[in-house]
Design brief:
By secondary structure, the protein is mainly alpha-helical. The protein starts with a helix and ends with a helix.
Length: about 60
């Protein structure tokens, strides 16, 4: 397994978790809980983007 494959898999898992958090936020009745879950989903999406970018840089260096 290459570094790019590992990075892509990790980014995909993070995106899936972000999607779960967003769906939970959509179902949340409490406004504070909804906001907390939306913030967590946003942070996870940003993290996924960072992981993807890091993987891209790693493969470009080869």
């Amino acid at each position: 397994m290459s570094v790019a494959d590992e990075t892509g898999g990790r980014a995909q898992r993070i995106r899936a978790k972000a999607q779960e958090m967003q769906e939970a936020a959509d179902r949340a009745a409490d406004p504070r809980e909804r906001q907390r879950l939306q913030d967590k989903a946003r942070r996870l999406r940003e993290r996924s983007d960072q992981v993807t970018t890091q993987g891209d840089h790693g493969t470009n260096a080869l």
